[in-house]
Design a protein that fits this description.
It is a single chain. By secondary structure, the chain is of the alpha+beta class. Helices cover 24% and strands 33% of the residues. The protein contains 12 helices and 27 strands. Strands 16, 17, 19, 20, 21, 22, 23, 24 and 25 form a 9-stranded mixed β-sheet that branches. Strands 1, 2, 3, 4, 5, 6 and 7 form a 7-stranded mixed β-sheet that branches. Strands 9, 10, 11, 12, 13, 14 and 15 form a 7-stranded mixed β-sheet that branches. Strand 13 and strand 14 form a beta hairpin. Helix 1 (3-40) runs parallel beside helix 5, helix 1 runs parallel beside helix 8 and helix 5 runs parallel beside helix 8. The longest helix has 38 residues, at 3-40. The two termini are 45 Å apart.
């Protein structure tokens, strides 16, 4: 073997190691998603099987060790399944995963909220933080330690308060700023030799990339449904699609899909209408060779009409199918399995609105490497061509590594914000990054960002009387072709807790608020993912208190406007919101006539429709300060602009150049 062949073998070994580590991060995330999905149907045996043989579970009532003891603790000795009318919906999301240097262990931090009911009238709501550890055991990833830090408890009748009605301590972080932006650290040893054929590694990388695309498509669908953007939803589906609501009705083709969508109301939201349907615990499996994929997750719907003073909860499991045509993924099947529908004011106790018989759609299989019939060796005999293939495979792998890096740093922002950890929060940003402070404007650079949050909220505390959680979920992440920059869209799902129950008219305890982070960006800076720009559009809706919820918020009184942000006087922003024109129109602190819930604020998008290329009414493809301050753009600092519409491999499709028809195809079929 000559020197060049040895270099190719080493590059192949390093690629095999790095592909396995990328898959490991996602396998760890899927463990927690499977756990939440199994709890929703009371599959205690499935949940226990996710643990290592010597794994532990600690939910504050003692440590259970080993699968048998863990199953006993989870089920309280009951058989698998839930009693008639019972509810056990736990939403576990906002993952922050860090892999060990040897690739055999991992740590994870998650947010959780659970809606519980025994079917006999008793209800419960609880939430908090998981700080877990994971281990590779027998070639598969398993939960080594499951530790839940309970932060609030209550029931549907009265809402919730801090556990013990006390100030809440900060749950220790398993990561620092650098680790948050580096989910996969540099290896501590050379890569072991690998006999994995390059074609298999290429397939595994393609599987990761297709998973990113399908997850983006699933999550983008959710945002369109929130705003009843039915035309955009239809664009995402094949012409022969199937929609089925289990036990209720099925619909076929685009006409049927449109009829299904309009059961939620006509296109567009009217005054005081809420159709928020955030998605949680989504697992995706793809087969790049066949061009098919499946997603499974949980949809929590918060519905209402202020004018009619109606509100409702809905929970459904979705199990959807996708096909790939001309390089773009589309929905081919949308299947919903209702779990609960309950009037907001009556709640889900005593089986209200809970189906007596619920079909459990199959869980998705454990993540495994792609298996194909290939020759035992697949590397070009010409070393130069082999090097080129490996280099291209590594570039594509970097794009999927970016997806996880961006999701990690996004989660870190939410965790640090919840706990008022201002030095760490500011350090998450790139050296030339920028951040919006709500209702005030933008601050440029880490020092100014740190100064703004400290001026607004004071020094970091050791405990807090309450928390406004900043769940940053349902990401749509578009990564540049070189894997060094990304656009990011996430939801702001914001439950709040306090030491005391809220009194009429108080907004701080036991309620939900909603908003959007529509134009965030991230970059790979000196090997660490950092936020480049962060924008919050809020609030899209608020709850007046627990009893009244979002459907009882009165219209703003004429002539009464919210107080300006104190930062405008105490620590003025580098770019005030009033300088940003139409982009901040109708938002508090911005321009034009203020719109507050029950009014409907505009929803902005950084991307066009991912299938048809349709441009949304409110489209802002770059960071929000970009038009006011061109130097705030990533591209002004040597980074590529990520795609903002239909794309293949990080390159945005241009119909007039590529000859691609960016409209729903006419003859797609589901294999």
């Amino acid at each position: 073997m000559d020197e060049r062949d040895a270099e190719v073998d080493l590059a192949l070994a390093e690629l095999a190691r790095d592909v396995e580590r990328a898959e490991s991060v996602r396998a760890v995330k899927d463990l927690e998603r499977h756990y939440a999905q199994a709890r929703q149907v009371g599959s205690w045996s499935t949940m226990a099987a996710l643990f290592a043989l010597d794994g532990t579970s600690d939910h504050g009532d003692g440590i259970a060790r080993g699968r048998t003891a863990i199953r006993q603790a989870l089920s309280a000795g009951r058989p698998d399944g839930l009693p008639s009318g019972a509810v056990a919906v736990e939403l576990i999301d906002q993952p922050l995963i860090t892999l060990s240097a040897d690739g055999e262990h991992a740590r994870g931090r998650w947010l959780s909220i659970a809606f519980l009911g025994d079917g006999g009238g008793r209800t419960g709501i609880e939430g908090g933080i998981y700080e877990n550890s994971y281990v590779r055991e027998g070639g598969a990833w398993r939960i080594a330690e499951h530790r839940f830090h309970l932060q609030f408890v209550g029931d549907h009748a009265t809402g919730w308060t801090n556990v013990g009605q006390r100030d809440l301590p900060i749950v220790p972080f398993h990561f620092d700023v650098e680790e948050a932006g580096t989910p996969i650290p540099p290896p501590d040893e050379p890569a072991p030799p690998s006999d994995e054929p390059l074609v298999i590694l290429e397939d595994r990388i393609a599987t990761l990339a297709d998973e990113d695309a399908v997850r983006n498509l699933q999550n983008a669908y959710g945002y369109y449904v929130d705003r009843r953007m039915w035309t955009d939803v239809v664009d995402l589906f094949t012409t022969d699609c199937v929609v089925e609501v289990e036990g209720i009705e099925s619909f076929h083709g685009h006409d049927g899909l449109r009829r299904f969508l309009e059961t939620m109301g006509p296109e567009g939201l009217g005054y005081g209408q809420l159709n928020d349907r955030p998605l949680f615990d989504t697992v995706v499996r793809t087969d790049p060779r066949r061009g098919v994929a499946v997603s499974r997750g949980i949809e929590l719907a918060m519905l209402g009409d202020v004018t009619a003073r109606t509100a409702a909860w809905e929970v459904s499991v979705f199990r959807n199918r996708f096909v790939k045509r001309e390089g773009l993924w589309r929905f081919s099947e949308l299947r919903l399995y209702p779990v609960m529908r309950a009037d907001y004011f009556a709640g889900w106790g005593s089986g209200h609105g809970v189906p007596t018989s619920v079909t459990v759609p199959p869980f998705l299989a454990e993540r495994r490497a792609a298996e194909h019939d290939v020759a035992p060796v697949d590397i070009d005999t010409d070393a130069a061509r082999g090097e080129m293939r490996i280099a291209e495979a590594r570039r594509r792998l970097r794009r999927s590594l970016a997806y996880d890096g961006v999701e990690n740093v996004s989660a870190a922002y939410g965790f640090y914000l919840d706990d008022f950890q201002w030095p760490q929060l500011a350090a998450l940003f790139a050296a030339s990054g920028n951040k919006q402070s709500p209702f005030a404007g933008y601050y440029l650079g880490r020092e100014r960002i740190a100064g703004s949050v400290t001026a607004n909220w004071g020094a970091p505390p050791s405990t807090r009387p309450g928390i406004s959680y900043h769940w940053r979920t349902q990401p749509v992440i578009h990564v540049s072709a070189d894997g060094r920059s990304a656009h990011l869209r996430t939801r702001l799902f914001q439950p709040r807790t306090w030491k005391e129950r809220s009194r009429p008219g108080e907004f701080y305890a036991a309620g939900f608020h909603g908003g959007m982070y529509p134009n965030d960006q991230a970059v790979l800076e000196e090997g660490v993912w950092r936020l480049w720009s962060l924008t919050i559009d809020e609030p899209y809706f608020t709850s007046i208190d627990w009893n009244g919820g979002w459907a009882s918020v009165p219209p703003p009184r004429p002539g009464v406007t919210p107080r300006p942000s104190p930062l405008l006087e105490t620590y003025p922003p580098d770019i005030p919101m009033t300088a940003l024109g139409r982009r901040e129109e109708h938002f508090r602190g911005g321009t034009g006539e203020l719109i507050e819930w029950p009014g409907i604020l505009p929803m902005w998008f950084h991307y066009r429709n991912p299938v048809s290329g349709r441009t949304p009414r409110h489209f802002w493809p770059d960071c929000v300060p970009s038009e006011y301050l061109p130097d705030s753009r990533m591209t002004a600092h040597g980074y590529q602009m990520p795609p903002n519409g239909p794309e293949v491999d990080g390159v945005e499709l241009q119909p007039e150049v590529d000859g691609v028809e960016l409209q729903p195809e006419d003859a797609a079929s589901t294999p």
